[in-house]
Amino acid sequence: MTLPALHNTGVLYRRILSQFPQDISLAFAYGSGVFKQHGTSQGQMEKNMLDFVFAVDDPVTWHTMNLLQNRKHYSILKLFGPTMISSIQNEHGAAVYYNTLVPVDGRIIKYGVISTESLIDDLMHWKTLYVAGRLHKPVKMLVQSENAKLRAALVANLKSTVTASFLMLPESFTEEDLFLQIAGLSYAGDFRMVIGEDKSKVANIVKDNFQHFRILYSNILRDCPQVVYKPQQGKLEVDKSPEGQFTQLMALPRTLQQRITKLVDPPGKNRDVEEILLQVAQDPDCGAVVQQVHCVSWSPSGLWKTVSYSSKKLMKMWKGWRRKPSVSQMS
Fold first, then answer.
1. What class of enzyme is it (predicted)?
2. What is the rounded CA–CA span in Å between residue 312 and residue 309?
3. pLDDT in tens, 119-150
4. How far apart (Å, rounded) are the C-alpha atoms in residues 26 and 37?
5. Looking at beta carbons, which pairs linking 70-75 to residues 24 or more positions away fall under 8 Å?
6. How far apart are CA 265 and CA 279, in angstroms?
7. Band (269; pLDDT cuts 50, 70, 90)
8. Which residues does 30 contact at the CB level (< 8 Å), separation at least 6?
């Protein structure tokens, strides 16, 4: 399965891409300059900045070529050369290097450069969720290479956000509920939703792009054995049994599993991930645990939120788990 293409690539995007080195494994445009949001006119959209992400196999080579073609795009870091730029890109933050407020073809754009390897890692494991989160929402896919590992990671990322959303939603819900949950999850890796971002942005994105979300997720929902999907009614029913929730927890990205384990495992226990997730799956508040861990894990305030996480609730869970048989006793 490949990621659905939402639109044909327009002339504007082809003209912009033609001004960059062509060794790109994945390129997409996203944001309010690409997709209409509720309350935004077409005229306003055309004035908004266009946002791009380029994945490249060899960042040093790509930045070398781009410095020759587009030296003015770079900040003072251009003085330190492509190796330093690539080092900063790969070793800090979300492994993305951005050039911002760049005038190209009558529009203002910003573009982020990430290595293909770092992108695949984020898609598969949600290490930062920065680019993976953007790809939870509809984007305008401009370039997609035949890299089989990258294509599989793109689909895995979509499946992961559906699974995480199932755990946080009730047994029965609508497509709109699901897409709102997905769009909300996608911003966990974006610090702007913690500081200075319009909190109604998630609802606005889903309202005017409902059909784009449907195109992106319909095949995954139809193929998923954990859910009954009724596209005509726009309704879904998910398996909320302990067995169903355990299956969903085991399918989560590795980083999220590890952070659930770290948060809920009593100090000194050092149990394996499977045992802990089995006990979380049996807890009536399983979804709330996943929601809390997800919210605190990728935000700048995550450390303080983790510290202030409901200690009474955790103590209640731990006491309840002590009354339950262990994995070895159940097997």
1. transferase
2. 9
3. 999 999 998 899 999 999 999 999 999 999 99
4. 25
5. 70/19, 70/20, 70/99, 70/102, 73/99, 73/102, 74/99, 75/99
6. 10
7. confident
8. 51, 52, 53, 134, 137, 139, 140
